[in-house]
């Protein structure tokens, strides 16, 4: 398989390193357009989340570039400095990695739902930028489908979790409570909404920042109090907990401005973003506790989780086999469609005499319906064969079938 990926994630790299490779949506689009211009690159997708950045490439068979160097070049960082943090995968290894990733098996919070959406969003962005190709299109769609099946059929002990869930759980274990507390959530994107909803369920009074420049209707979870983003430093002294979860490349909380707010009571700041929203070092101020994404690692894997993993991997293995069959036989799809069309014309020709006798042969709608129905039936049979035999056997069968019509055409 001429599929390649290079990635950096929470397993090898802490936040200071991961944020060097983070892409905003705009940056990802620009980078993919740049990559797509390379001679041997036929498709590319960039996946960038809080816990990982991955560059995916579909290439010609003579592609020889170092994908890790390509990623470092895109981010304008030193390859020598960051090479040890980057993982490169090719072919089957890369495909299996993506399937496990989409199912939430490689997330910092095992079984979390957001990664499935993020994989789909990465494909959508690449498609919108005209940077994907059929190989990556089918790969990512198959991964999303497999991930959804795992979510439906496998009960993960930590299923339906998010970074916000993990943060709240860790804080509760440390003795913090949320009922009746005042919480400020900076950011109203997907992570911000999840955080707000979780805090509301736990009985907190939740305030959410909204930026003034947003036009139109801004959707926020029911029950939250909306405040202008520029008022956040004024509101912080009133709050017990401050969560920040934006996709902004800029800091939402700085040590200098927070120091000027003259906080007089203990505060807990939780940074759920990469790149980080909250400036490291604010914990040096009086009575401030700061958490970030790396504060919520899973300490151990339970037997229950191991069993769930085994069930999930069975589903993902079946998805891999399905994709492998498609990949190996992808070049014969035009041939399958041509044969379906030939067979449809064959059926119509064999019906010519009875249709004429019924005085309906000149009915164009009827002929169109016959062609369409015959093509679908034959196509169903042919694609069924494709999914049941190896690629070379399929090619031999199709060549033989085509030969039947070629011979008939030559004899006529």
Short note summarizing the structure:
The chain has 412 residues and is of the alpha/beta class. Helices cover 50% and strands 13% of the residues.
Features:
412 residues; Rossmann fold; 3 domains; alpha/beta; six-stranded parallel sheet; Beta Polymerase, domain 2
Notes on the protein architecture:
This protein has 3 domains: 3-153, Beta Polymerase, domain 2 (2-Layer Sandwich), CATH 3.30.460; 163-296, NAD(P)-binding Rossmann-like Domain (Rossmann fold, 3-Layer(aba) Sandwich), CATH 3.40.50.720; 303-406, no CATH class. The chain contains 16 helices and 10 strands. The protein has helices at residues 15-18, 25-36, 67-75, 79-82, 91-102, 114-128, 134-153, 163-173, 190-201, 232-235, 255-260, 303-329, 333-350, 352-357, 364-386, 391-411; strands at residues 3-9, 41-48, 52-59, 87-90, 182-186, 205-210, 225-228, 241-244, 267-271, 288-291. The strands form 2 sheets. Strands 7-6-5-8-9-10 form a 6-stranded parallel beta sheet, covered by helices on one side. Helix 7 (134-153) packs antiparallel against helix 12 (303-329). The two termini are 42 Å apart.
